[in-house]
From TrEMBL:
It comes from Streptomyces rapamycinicus (strain ATCC 29253 / DSM 41530 / NRRL 5491 / AYB-994). SMART domains: HTH_LUXR. The keyword Transcription applies. It holds the Pfam family GerE. GO terms for biological process: regulation of DNA-templated transcription. InterPro entries: Sig_transdc_resp-reg_C-effctor, Tscrpt_reg_LuxR_C, WH-like_DNA-bd_sf. Keywords: DNA-binding, Transcription, Transcription regulation. Residues 92-156 form the HTH luxR-type domain. This is HTH luxR-type domain-containing protein. PROSITE patterns: HTH_LUXR_1, HTH_LUXR_2. One of its GO terms (molecular function) is DNA binding. It comes from the Bacteria.
């Protein structure tokens, strides 16, 4: 956890936060831009702000910023940084790849391990239509197989 004052100066951090901060650090900045961005989004909000960012090593992190006084006045802010859950990363990737809602439906079923026939039955479409959608998903994600698709989306 990072503890920042109202001027976004670092007051305190635990060892884990130091490691994550180094993972996100940009040249010469005391605080990573991603941290400042999440803090800015939560500024004056009653609820914590949330963001996801990919670190230099390729690992995805989730960031949460919460005002400690709970009110709109500037005050200390706590920022937590943790490895992002695979579901959060998948959500970001689906948006980045530009998949249609139907392609996202299809992908969710592929990730769940359903065969084409079961996907077709659930979505009330033909197996050929499932294959057409999967070809489109493969093209958009740059993979050639279901296993590569699942690995790409889940970051395996």
């Amino acid at each position: 956890m990072l503890l920042l004052d109202q001027d976004l100066r670092l007051l305190s951090e635990n060892p884990a936060a130091k490691l994550w901060r180094d993972e996100l650090a940009s040249s010469g900045a005391k605080l990573p831009i991603a941290v400042l961005e999440v803090v800015a989004r939560g500024s004056g909000a009653a609820l914590p702000a949330y963001g996801r960012i990919r670190g230099r090593s390729g690992r995805w992190l989730s960031l949460h910023a919460s005002p400690l006084n709970g009110g709109p006045d500037p005050a200390s802010v706590a920022v937590t940084m943790n490895p992002a859950p695979a579901t959060d990363v998948a959500e970001v990737l689906l948006l980045a790849y530009g998949l249609t809602p139907r392609e996202r439906d299809m992908l969710a079923r592929v990730v769940a391990g359903l065969p084409s026939r079961a996907i077709a039955t659930e979505l009330h479409i033909t197996v050929a239509t499932v294959q057409d959608h999967l070809k489109s998903v493969f093209a958009k994600t740059g993979v050639r197989s279901r296993s590569a698709l699942v690995a790409t989306i889940l970051g395996l």
